[in-house]
Amino acid sequence: MGGLDLSYTNITSLPEKFSINGNLALSGTKLTNLPEGLSVSGSLELEYTEIQTLPRNLTIGGNLDLFHTQINKLSENLSVGGYLSLQNQKISTLPENLSVNGTLYIDATEIKRLPESLQVNHVLILDIEKIENIVYYKNLEGFASTIFACWINNEFTIVAARFLGALKTFEEHVDKNESYENAINYKIAARECVKKLAKKLNKPFLSNSL
Predict the structure, then answer these.
(1) Average pLDDT of span 20-46
(2) Beta strands in 96-181 (DSSP E)
(3) What is the C-alpha separation between 190 and 135, in angstroms, rounded?
(4) Which end of the chain lies in a sparser environment, N or C, as judged by fewer CB atoms within 10 Å?
(5) How far apart are CA 32 and CA 50, in angstroms?
(6) 89/72 Cα distance (integer angstroms)
(7) What is the pLDDT of residues 92-126, one digit of tens each?
(8) Are 141 and 122 in contact (CB under 8 A)?
(9) Using an 8 Å Cβ cutoff, are 191 and 210 in contact?
(10) Which residues pair with 164 in a beta bridge?
(11) 144, 97, 141, 140: which is closest to 125 by C-alpha?
C-alpha cells in the first residue's frame, strides 16, 4: 500500500474530494480543516494540527487516532476501517451512523451516551460508570471481571474484555472457554444486564428465546 506523508510541511489545504490509496500523514501541518469528500484507504494521522472538525461522510480505511488533536466533534456517517481512538479528547458526543470495524476507544472522554446507530465490530473500550445507556456487572470470576450490555450493531450486545457480540454468542463463548461454574455466573450476569437495559431503553427482550 502506498501513501502520502505531508507531516510537518507548510501545506495549508487539500483539494475537494481528495482521495489517497494508502496512509495520509498530516501531523504537524498548518491545516485547519479537511476537505469534503476526503477518502483515505489507509490510516489518517492528524496529531499536532489545528483541525477541530471532520468532514461529513468521511471514510478512513485504516486507523484514526485523535490523540494530540484539537478535534472536538465528529461528523455524521464517519466510517473507520481500523480502530478509532478518542482517548483524552474533549469530544462529548458520538455522531449518528458511526461505523468502526476495529476497536472504538472512548475512555477518558466526556461521552455519556452511545448512539443507537453505532456499529462496532471488534471491541468497545469505555468508562462504564460514565455511560448512561449501558448496564454493567462487576466482580465476576474468569476472563473478564466486568461485563456490560449495550445497544449497538442493531442488537443487544455484550462486551467483556476483548469479547464483543450478541448475548447468544457470548453464552456460547463462555460455555466453551470457562469452567461450568464461571459460565453459569457469566450467563446469569449477562442476561440480567440485558433485561435491565431493555427496560431502560424501552426495547423488547424475550428471555425465553435464549
Answers:
(1) 96
(2) 99-100, 104-105, 119-120, 124-125, 135-137, 147-152, 155-160, 163-166
(3) 9
(4) N
(5) 5
(6) 7
(7) 999 999 999 999 999 999 999 999 999 999 999 99
(8) no
(9) yes
(10) 159
(11) 144
